């Protein structure tokens, strides 16, 4: 069931989103050679609680940490551990928090130092795809328009869309209806209406879109060992268009 949010509810989600944008900004700056993924996890917990929010990932479906960190061929849901980040790594950070009962969910892939040109293009195209998906999320459009915008941009550059993990409605829970796929057809799917709050999160692979789950039960990896990249924002649909709730400047950044 899709629950449209009232403006006072979106006000609370806007605050949650702003706090999460600040947390992710701090974490992104910490991605330097030698830092461990556990260091990032501890920082996430500290930065979230400092802002009177709760780390929503902790215990969510049994997830043991406060942050997902997925490196290179890891796609999503990486569990922070003692791994040290090295120059050239692509480090995907996915984080969620709860403020007064309302969720924000966002993330990004951060390059550690200089990365090769293919990785640079993968980052650029995935971030652009998120922007195009958000730009398609206007009242009167449909979720197929969003998915199509993401998919067309990614595939035009020879990369692939991971199908098994999608965006989602968000609000009182992290994962609400509707599903927000990163592929689709123009004019198809759920109608986008004011009050709809969704997370859009293109997950893009260098090579095959096929993925597998590691023996830890969480970490998703590419089956060909090539790299993956991801960007996510929580947005609210208003009468005057999509509003990004998880950007520092209230824009699409
Ligand atoms: Mg999400
Ligand atoms: Mg997320």
Give your account of this protein's structure:
- This protein is α+β, with helices and mostly antiparallel strands.
- The chain has a single domain, classed as Creatine Amidinohydrolase (Alpha-Beta Complex).
- It is built from four helices and 15 strands.
- It has a five-stranded antiparallel beta sheet.
- A hairpin with a 2-residue loop joins strand 14 and strand 15.
- Helix 1 packs antiparallel against helix 2 and helix 3 packs antiparallel against helix 4.
- The chain is globular and about 45 Å long.
- It starts with 6 loop residues before the first helix and ends in a 9-residue tail after the last strand.
- Bound molecules: magnesium ion (2 copies).
- The site of one magnesium ion has 5 residues, from loops.
- The site of one magnesium ion has 6 residues, from strand 4 and strand 5.
């Amino acid at each position: 069931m899709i629950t449209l949010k009232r403006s006072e509810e979106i006000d609370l989600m806007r605050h949650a989103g702003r706090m999460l944008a600040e947390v992710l900004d701090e974490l992104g700056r910490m991605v330097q050679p030698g830092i461990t993924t556990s260091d990032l996890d501890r920082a996430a917990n500290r930065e979230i609680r400092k802002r009177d929010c709760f780390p929503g990932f902790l215990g969510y479906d049994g997830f043991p940490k406060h942050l997902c960190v997925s490196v290179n061929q890891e796609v999503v849901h990486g569990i922070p551990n003692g791994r040290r980040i090295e120059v050239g790594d692509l480090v995907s950070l996915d984080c969620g928090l709860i403020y007064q009962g309302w969720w924000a969910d966002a993330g990004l892939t951060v390059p550690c130092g200089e990365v090769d040109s293919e990785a640079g293009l993968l980052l650029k195209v995935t971030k652009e795809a998120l922007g195009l998906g958000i730009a398609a999320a206007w009242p009167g459009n449909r979720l197929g328009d969003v998915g199509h915008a993401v998919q067309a941009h990614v595939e035009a550059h020879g990369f692939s869309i991971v199908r098994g993990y999608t965006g989602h409605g968000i609000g009182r829970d992290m994962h609400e209806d509707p599903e927000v796929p990163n592929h689709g057809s123009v004019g198809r799917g759920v109608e986008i209406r004011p009050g709809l709050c969704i997370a859009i999160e293109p997950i893009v692979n260098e090579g095959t879109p096929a993925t597998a789950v590691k023996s830890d039960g969480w970490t998703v990896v590419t089956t060909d060992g090539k790299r993956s990249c991801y960007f996510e924002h929580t947005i609210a649909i208003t009468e005057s268009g999509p509003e990004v709730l998880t950007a520092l400047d209230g824009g699409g950044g």
